[in-house]
Design brief:
This protein has helices spanning 3-10, 16-67, 90-102, 144-153; strands at 76-78, 140-142, 156-160, 163-166, 194-195, 204-205, 215-218, 242-244, 251-252, 258-262, 273-275, 290-291. With 303 residues, it is an alpha+beta fold.
């Protein structure tokens, strides 16, 4: 064998340096591809969020039209025994009056006495608002993220394992929770994203990132009527409705309507309150929030 043949065969293999270079190039390409795919996925979920916010807003309008009301509340007290107490204050009175407006034949009282006989039989002794098969003597206060699911979805139907489906409301004029005659809900919530984060039997609707629910705030049909009861209607989520710093003096976005807010990709809500023009950055909590009152992320507000 000649020396030239040996040298020729030796050049068929990569050197260690060449292998390291190739590996480095592949790693860079994989990193770029992964980052690109992640950006596409995030963009797709943001588009889905914006679409769902629009669908929820439309459904709110449909419910209002069908039920002859001007708003869906973002805080309400539900008493399954219908034994409301007017002396307890505005929330108790407003809750009873709103339910009576939606379902005019509900046997509601405001003197603390139940119109039903004692017992725990749904339909005969109360309204089983959370669909658990038991009439509870204790009231439950729903926050905004629960309210929008309850009124648009109807009676929760526990499926076991923390899974819920929304069953709509009954056409029974005296019992909207009558399980024998539930109608289709105003909005079809996907069961995979319904979560009861408070353990009350009333789920919230998680946004497509799957951690935080859509926050919901109502103006209660009055101009700038947000925070009707003096505190945030989504206090558990840690935010308040947004107002325009331009005023005057407090001018909420959607002043006579409602606000729907998603926490976005970083899964952290902004605090709400006055929204400064150009004062949010995407890195801050709330910077990548998506809403029904601004096109795009809140980091782009005022730009």
């Amino acid at each position: 064998m000649t020396t030239n043949a040996v040298r020729s065969r030796g050049r068929e293999a990569f050197t260690l340096i060449e292998l390291l270079v190739v590996i480095a190039i592949i790693a860079v390409l994989v990193g770029l591809t992964t980052a690109g795919v992640q950006r596409v996925r995030v963009a797709a979920k943001r588009a889905q969020i914006s679409n769902e916010i629009g669908q929820l807003s439309t459904a709110v309008g449909v419910f209002q039209r069908d039920k002859g009301v001007t708003f869906i509340p973002s805080r309400i007290m539900l008493r399954e025994r219908m034994d409301y107490v007017s002396a307890n204050g505005a929330l108790e009175i407003d809750s009873a009056n709103y339910l009576k407006q939606v379902w005019s034949h509900l046997p509601i009282r405001l003197d603390g006495v139940s119109p039903y006989p004692a017992g725990t039989v749904p339909g005969a002794n109360g309204i089983d608002w959370n669909g658990d098969g038991v009439i509870s003597p204790n009231p439950v206060i729903l926050e905004g993220d629960q309210c929008v699911v309850f009124f648009l979805g109807g009676i929760p139907r526990p499926q076991g394992g923390g899974v819920f489906a929304m069953g709509g409301f009954s056409n029974n004029p005296v019992n909207p929770a009558d399980a024998t005659s539930l109608k289709a809900p105003t909005f079809e919530f996907p069961t995979s994203r319904l979560k009861d984060g408070r353990g009350q039997g009333y789920p919230s609707f998680l946004d497509p990132f799957g951690v935080q629910p859509f926050a919901y705030f109502s103006s209660f049909g009055a101009k700038n009527g947000y925070n009707r009861y003096g505190s945030s209607d989504c206090a558990t989520l840690g935010l308040s409705p947004y107002a325009d710093i331009a005023g005057p003096p407090v001018n909420y976005f959607q002043p006579t309507g409602h606000q729907i807010i998603s926490a976005g990709y970083n899964k952290q809500f902004g605090p709400g309150g006055l929204l400064l023009s150009g004062g949010l950055t995407e890195a801050l909590p709330g910077g990548d929030d998506l809403t029904n009152f601004h096109t795009g992320q809140l980091s782009g507000y005022g730009n």
